[in-house]
Specification:
One of its GO terms (molecular function) is structural constituent of ribosome. Residues 142-152 have a biased composition (Low complexity). The protein is α+β, with helices and mostly antiparallel strands. It has 2 domains: 14-116, 50s Ribosomal Protein L17, Chain: A (Alpha-Beta Complex); 118-153. It is 61% helix and 12% strand. The protein is built from 5 helices and 3 strands; from the N terminus they run H-E-H-H-H-E-E-H. It has helices at residues 14-31, 38-57, 60-69, 73-86, 119-153, and strands at residues 33-37, 95-102, 109-115. The radius of gyration is 24 Å and the shape is extended.
């Protein structure tokens, strides 16, 4: 029986599980949206929510506690300057877990874990990627046109 055995083991030993969750939480705070398995998303949710609550406090002690958990200083800066102010009047529930299908190898259920209110930033990132893709496509078409023009200028049979 699993009475009073809360939490997720994730098939790992303690240090590996702790490292995995710290990395996942850091990625969520840096990227706003991460795809992972549903179990890992559910395991990471309370950690992210506690860190956002620390970020809302905003004092030095909270910053040091966040720095002790997160992997990078950039993540701490982003947490306190960008992420936490979004949720000033909200008491918890900062994340959304959206199921996204199944993993190919082992059939594990995948999910996106994302911060609420990050839709605008995610749309901007998506639009920027689309513009970069379009620019690359235009450059490729231009290069192909130049190449065809160069090939078209030469005699096809050569000098025989």
């Amino acid at each position: 029986m699993r009475h009073r055995n809360a939490g997720y083991k994730l098939g790992r030993n303690t240090s590996h599980r702790r490292a995995l969750l710290r990395n996942l939480v850091t990625s969520i705070l840096m990227e706003d949206r991460v795809e992972t398995t549903i179990t890992k998303a559910k395991a990471a949710r309370p950690h992210v929510e506690k860190l956002i609550t620390l970020g809302k406090k905003g004092d030095v002690h909270s910053r040091r506690q966040a720095l002790a958990y997160l992997q990078t200083r950039e993540a701490v800066t982003r947490l306190f300057d960008t992420v936490a102010p979004r949720y000033g009047d909200r008491n918890g529930g900062y994340l959304r877990i959206v199921r996204s299908g199944f993993q190919r190898g082992d059939g594990a259920e995948k999910a996106f874990i994302e911060l609420l209110g990050a839709e605008q930033e995610l749309d901007e990132k998506r639009q920027k990627r689309a513009e970069a893709r379009a620019k690359r496509r235009e450059e490729m078409q231009k290069a192909m046109a130049e190449q065809q023009q160069a090939e078209g200028g030469e005699p096809e049979g050569g000098n025989e």
